[in-house]
Amino acid sequence: MADDDDNIKSIDEERLNSDYDSTREIVKILLDFIKKQFNSLGMDDFHKLVNPSLEDLLKYVMNMQKIVLKLEKKLVDIKTDDSEIFLNSMRIQNIKQGLLYAENLLFSIKNYNRKECKEYLDKLDKNNI
């Protein structure tokens, strides 16, 4: 019976680690896309984006923030000795921070605030996901 519980726990831990890896990769792609578009288009032309639009990108970032918070809760709530789970629960802070920088960059673009755009772009570049 204890072996069955250990197997279920192990499967849950593997699933959580896999969810973390997938979420991290999606966020990284999203943040890289935003940085690349801003660097190639600049603030003025960024407003002309249609597919996805500036508003779409804001929605994607906010949606990913919700997903990351749910994942963080699962990582924190699980009772385990798995060091990878523990590390991922710590690493998720960088993901949350990167999403916050991206959100602030997009709002700065929306408000035509060049100074803040530079500030948040620099922070995004330094963010280690």
Q: Spell the H/E element sequence.
A: HHHH
Form type: elongated
Number of helices: 4
Radius of gyration: 18 Å
Low-confidence stretches: none
Percent of residues in β-strands: under 5%
Structural class: mainly alpha
Quaternary organisation of the protein chains: single chain
Determine the mean pLDDT: 89
The first-to-last residue Cα distance is 39 Å
Percent range of helical residues? over 70%
- State the total count of DSSP E strands: 0
Largest sheet, in brief, is: none
Explain this structure:
The protein is built from four helices and no strands. It has 129 residues and is mainly α. Helix 1 runs antiparallel to helix 2 (54-77) and helix 1 (2-46) packs parallel to helix 3 (83-110). The protein is elongated, with a radius of gyration of 18 Å. It starts with a helix and ends with a helix.
